[in-house]
Amino acid sequence: MTAADVDIAVLGAGPAGSTAALAAAQAGLRVALLDEQDAPGGQVWRAKSAAILSAPHTPESKAGAALRQAVADSSIMLHPATRVWQIARTGDGWQIDTLRDGATDSLTATRLIIASGAREVVQPLPGWTTPGVIGLAGATALFKQNLTVPGARTVVAGTGPLVFYVASEIRRLGGTVAAVVTPNTRRDWAGSLPAMLGKPALVARGALWVADLMLSGVPVLWGHQVTAVEGDTRVSRITAQSVTGASTHNFAADSLCLGNGLMPQVEAAQMLGVPLHHDAALGGWVPACSDDGVTPVAGLYLCGDGTGIRGADAAVHHGRLCGLRAAADAGCTSGHAMDIARRNWRRAARFGLAMTALSRPTPALAQLASDDTIICRCESLTRRDILAEIGSGATSTNAVKSGLRAGMGPCGGKYCQTSVARLIAAETGVTEGAVPPPTPRPPLRPVPVAAAAGQFDYDDLPIPKPAPL
Amino acid sequence: MIRLVPNHADRIRRTAEVTFHFDGTTLPGCEGETLIAALMRAGVLHLRNAPHDGAPRGGFCAMGLCQECMVRVDGQVVEACRVTVTPGLQVARL
Amino acid sequence: MSYDIAIIGGGIMGCATALRLAAGGMRPIVLDQGDLGQGASGVNAGTLSLQIKRVKLMPYALKGHHLWEEMGTAVGFAKTGGYTLAFTDREVDLLHERQTMKREAGAPITFVSNNALRAAEPGLTHAVKAASYCPEDGYANSALTGQYYRGKLQDAGIAYRERTPVTGIDRVDGYELQTPAGPVRAARVLLAAGAWLKPLAALMDVDLPVNARINTVSVTERMPAMMSHVIGHATGLLTMKQKANGTVLIGGGWQGKGTPQQGRGEVDVAAVKPNLALAQYALPALGTARVLRSWTGFEANVPDFYPLAGTLPGFDDAFVLGCVRGGYTIGPSIGQLMGDLILGRSPEMPLFDPGRSFEEDRP
What we know:
The complex is a heterotrimer. By secondary structure, chain A is α/β, with parallel strands linked by helices. Chain A has three domains: 6-119 and 263-356, 3-Layer(bba) Sandwich (FAD/NAD(P)-binding domain); 122-260, FAD/NAD(P)-binding domain; 369-434, Arc Repressor Mutant, subunit A. Chain A has helices at residues 15-26, 59-73, 136-146, 162-172, 186-191, 193-196, 200-215, 267-271, 312-329, 337-359, 383-391, 397-404, 417-428, 449-453; strands at 6-11, 31-34, 52-54, 77-79, 83-90, 93-100, 103-114, 118-120, 133-135, 153-158, 176-182, 220-222, 224-231, 235-242, 248-252, 255-259, 262-264, 276-279, 284-287, 300-302, 374-376, 381-382, 447-448. In chain A, strands 1, 2, 4, 5, 6, 7 and 20 form a seven-stranded mixed beta sheet that branches. Chain B is mainly beta. Chain B has a single domain (14-91), classed as Ubiquitin-like (UB roll). In chain B, the strands form three sheets. Chain B has a three-stranded mixed beta sheet, with helices on one face. Chain B has a two-stranded antiparallel ribbon with strand order 4-5. The longest helix of chain B is centred in the middle third of the chain and has 7 residues, at 35-41. The radius of gyration of chain B is 15 Å and the shape is globular. Chain C is α+β, with helices and mostly antiparallel strands. Helices cover 28% and strands 26% of the residues of chain C. In chain C, the strands form four sheets. In chain C, strands 1, 2, 8, 9, 10, 11, 19 and 20 form an eight-stranded mixed beta sheet that branches. In chain C, strands 5-6-4-13-14-15-12-18 form an eight-stranded mixed beta sheet, sandwiched between helices. Chain C has a two-stranded antiparallel sheet with strand order 3-7. The chains are: A alpha/beta, B mainly beta, C alpha+beta. Chains in contact: A-B, A-C, B-C. Chains A and C meet through helix 12, strand 23 and helix 14 of A and helix 4, helix 6, helix 8 and strand 18 of C. Strand 3 of chain A pairs antiparallel with strand 1 of chain B.
């Protein structure tokens, strides 16, 4: 086998991937770090765009800046603005095909660490495809990168701590919060207190967000959920109801930030043959790997939220642990550092898992979609369409995908498959864990034909012997 | 009214305003910012119509996954949440 | 409960045979390790082209085209007509030699002038040196195979079990098939498991010389109308068509990696790139289309590239059907013939003895 370009390639430059890359680089290995964003930081520590000359710091911007500085000061070969569209095994190593500025390239590595992070779970409800409805996590990306709010008057709704962070950021950036609506109750939050006590600074910050909303007269509706969004080319009105259905509130608003926690992005690991299992406490389907990120696929490691939603703090320690493990497997041992990282990871994961538990969609949220509510946004397939397909005997996500195209659109099923699987589970009387996601297909991101084809000379086409006549 | 979370809007300094074009309309933006943010500040959230029912759609995930903010730049479909505003940028609705 | 026949493999061939058998009075059960129509039947490019069929299989393909047309919108059938292109002198020779033989075998293929081609498909490159045309060509949507046959089996009252792999086949007063969901008894068995025929036949101590090709297909996002016919290439290395929804499906038999035994195929970028390059060469406007998905499907074959369709060697109540080159097109018709054979009728076209010697190109 020819020598690989690098010892370790790390995909994803969020807290986990960047820290894994740093750990491996500090151990003396040649490390490449790839990310589709322009700078390391991931979603949680996303860097500001070039349009922002200066702005007040936040804990997230400081953490991100420190991480970016550490990467810049290291020997890591950073590949920013680089989309990975295909990964394949070559001999004992890996080939990673990338797309940057409309051109493809490839990189080989002996070992591969995937830190693919998370994406958002948004429970479909009537009107959720109206322009002006954006994901809670999507909103934080806008805030961090562009310091821009989605509208003049925003309702913030969903589960977990992110609603309060998003509401407070909208206020900090000059927007107006019409209301905060969360199905969680104060009792739900009180139940998480034991796990939260390990992170007093975060608890204090959260308490300040809530207090600020209260003092400013922003309605905070605990135990409530948004049940409908009205508006044609833009959100105009939001309806919220108490989870028990006892009370209804209407808000005039031009935007809605909506989310129900995060789920691990497992497609890349899945395509490379890592088995998945369902663990609701970790955010859904998670790939098989050890605490150190070792997978059953030789030379492939996983770390961070892509292995289960434990949050940014845990991701840092998990990244270090995984980077040290990969370095150790490459012959660069690190003494007790792995034990320390593992201990820190477990401690941080306690807090993160408590937040994941608060963020999980409640059963009542699954009832919000009406028959006419779109489930698959790409193909405009309604709940009625999906139920009819299941009723006709399509009882797997692959079968629903084939029959209806739910998951064949441009997003590749990223925003419908959780809902489709839940509907199959409910209709066929099995658990969500008995309804695996559909077979993942490359490319990992859409890639233009011209870019994939690259420079091409017709005479170089490898022509096989003609098919039998 | 008491504010515990300060309003930082006035303390954000951006690059000079430029103009770009969305579906024939000239809009302001800051060079280097993400197209979807510039469109949002300009009040443009309706970016395209869904292929089947023609219903209006706009940016949703804001991180390059959901493909709801697809627009056309230089003949190529791209995500508005991954395109950078440059002076005179021509953006077309799908 | 005992069935008259257990059909292992719920693709086009297994389901088409089951339907024929039920119509003839038998009680079949169909078992599939995955979902119905999710193997080669459901992941191929859906091309229905007489221009790429084997000469000796042309009667089966002509019948197949007729059956697909009858299935109609439920399977996404579209008869668009198809052009096959040649870009070099060598390809021109190949095109003339092969399409002439296929025309003599009954396919209504003609050679068309460049002007006629440009009038019909103005988006194609001007580098085309010669082209043939067949008005019978078109496509169906292979993704709808499972949905279609699931409904047909239900309508006919035929039992089927999905996600039920057969792990053992025992002879006990007929056959007892072992599955994770319990045993299934039947008087006869039909092996119709495509690329998985070899390990399946091995459960009955029969060695079938089945290999698998790993064909790659890619699909783009919706695009404005760019072409209106099925487009092929003289070497067979390209098939493409634009569906009514605007997506463009690109195939051509470029090989991926993996084996049926591993359970999954893997797309090989080294094969996808020239496949896409050839597509863009033929239709330059395709360059900006974003590829959303590429996938592979296992196409089973034996060394002579003719079907296995008949009794399993050494058995009189066990049958095998598969390895049909052009199996998507021919599947519905050869399934009917197979059903007739099992019912004890004489099929209207000859079948292909699985016990033959497999020297190349000698059925």
